[in-house]
Amino acid sequence: MAPKDRESEVALPALGFVGTLRWIWTQLTSMRTALFLLLLLAVAAVPGSLFPQRPANPAVVTQYIQDNPETGPVLDWFQLFDVYSSVWFSAIYLLLFISLIGCVIPRAIAHAKAWRSKPPRTPSRLSRMPVHGAFTLPAGRASVGFGSAGAGREGGRPDSARAAVVDAAAVLKKRGYRVDIRDEDGARPSVGAEKGFAKELGNLVFHLSLIGVLVSVAVGGLFGYRGQKILVEGDTFVNTLVGYDSFTPGTNFSEDNLDPYSVRLDAFDVQFDRQVTHYGQPIDFTATMTTRSAPGAEPEEQILKVNEPLTIGGTSVYLVGNGYAPVVTVRDGDGNIAHQGPVVSIPQDGLFTSLIVLKAPDARPDQLGFVGFFLPTAAIDENGVSFSRDPDPFLPQLNLNSYYGDLGLDDGEPQNVYVLDTDNLTELNSRNLEAGGIVLDPGETVDLPEGKGSITFDGLRRYVALDITHDPAELGALVFSSLALAGLAASLFIGRRRVWVRTGTDDGGRTTVEYGLLARGEDHRLAGEGAALEKLLRARWLAEPTEDDDNETAHAGASAHQSGKDN
């Protein structure tokens, strides 16, 4: 039968169901797969930075889908607006978690066995080691014995090969090596030494810490929560569900987890740069808050700044935005107050030109709506268009258009409070109508056309946008992240090394010493370690280098280099 025919008849055995599962588990728990999944998780997190995320700002996501009617729904179907809670991101997350556990446990067991085991046996040919050296101790007066093996005292020459190997073991032990003496009573005793187990330990700590970080993130996602609140000067926020403007709970969140603390914004101060080169840019934001950790608790004054959050009731309160809230009173056609209080405006530029929308659904006989701009320091350009020339409220002004009709709030459908839908409204005031637009300075009142009511600009307050988070695993994530960095540093900078020293006696009765060093992986400091060991041994035995020693060491090193090429 031809060889080709015989090869065609060879059939690989079928793996079977159990074998297939074992093969899948082996592939999943390999270090290569774990690294690939870690990279894939980082890549999968990129869309979370490219697209607005619904948990952080649902209004922006809704507006994005409205502005992109073709691509928006497709992106939403792929959960690109909920990246970190999406099915595909969670799948990568869980696979990485399983892969890391499957990688770490066998390696931890193997490392524990290696830690308890003795250093490897002494090779028969130390000259094949990457770093190798040999020298001979000149004959001389033997020293008084040291230790049970009769080695010479420090500063004296050993009187036998046995004493020399015990001395070498003592030197290695001082340098942090685990040592094991072999053939102590033989003609050529040796010592095997090993150190650098912290390198593998650091590697294990790094991977275990990654698992700890993943667990911490999962615990935070299950039991934590996050909410947003806009707080106007003088107003108080109470940590209840109805107190939030938007709220994103964890999977296992319970309303009982909310500590009933309160926060009042007493004052908010902003300092702007007055230098010509950076005129109008904000320099500092300071919010003066009064907090109570529980109902009836003593009030405490605290300062909130950017990147300096408040910590209260197990939550962190961050300052993420600010703006102006003009205080407005709207009266309807019957003379009744339809709205009274501050209205939050949304800054549109660095000079705090702000969009303002006001809805008065309680106005009678018709509901009223207003949309326009708030200008902190109003000015008029050459085209007669109003604009703000400074972010500070030196000359505040409201420029509004007014509408009446059905605001659509009675249908029960949610609306964006910062958007006024004018499709079913009739315009009362605008620059395009004979009545003109509404221009209000503080304290002024403007009557609406057709007796629909009036609007008054009562005053001005500031507001802050707060981001309130509760993460029960935040400390755990910090600890495990720190341990991961420490473990990574240990695995990168600690060298795993093995050293063997063999001694003997030549024909002239002199003690010969031969040593070799081997690193596990790349170690550019191995040669320096070999030179340091030889220097310490010579210093211990008061043995100066001779010409024969230098030639022998050079020859051994060349042999080792050549053998490395051959291998």
Q: What proportion of the residues is helical, as a percent range? A: 25-40%
Query: Rough shape?
Result: elongated
Task: Give the low-pLDDT segments.
Answer: 141-154, 550-567
Structural class: alpha+beta
Counted by DSSP, the helix tally is 12
Separation of termini? 39 Å
Estimated share of beta-strand residues:
25-35%
Q: How many runs of DSSP E, i.e. beta strands?
A: 26
Using only C-alpha atoms, the radius of gyration works out to: 39 Å
Averaged pLDDT: 86
How does this model look, in words?
The strands form six sheets. Strands 6, 8, 12, 13, 14, 23 and 24 form a seven-stranded antiparallel β-sheet that branches. Strands 15, 16, 17, 20, 21 and 22 form a six-stranded antiparallel β-sheet that branches. It is built from twelve helices and 26 strands. It is of the alpha+beta class.
Task: Give a topology summary.
Layout: H1 3-9, H2 16-28, H3 31-44, H4 47-50, H5 58-67, H6 71-77, H7 87-116, E1 131-137, E2 145-146, E3 151-152, H8 161-174, E4 178-182, E5 190-195, H9 197-223, E6 225-232, E7 236-238, E8 246-249, E9 262-272, E10 282-292, E11 300-304, E12 310-312, E13 315-331, E14 337-342, E15 345-347, E16 354-360, E17 367-375, E18 378-380, E19 386-388, E20 397-405, E21 425-429, E22 438-440, E23 445-447, E24 454-470, H10 474-493, E25 497-505, E26 511-519, H11 526-541, H12 547-566
Antiparallel strand pairs: 1-26, 2-3, 4-5, 5-25, 6-8, 6-24, 7-9, 9-10, 10-11, 12-13, 13-14, 13-24, 15-16, 16-17, 17-20, 18-19, 20-21, 20-22, 23-24, 25-26
Helix pairs in contact: 3-7, 5-6, 7-9, 8-11, 9-10
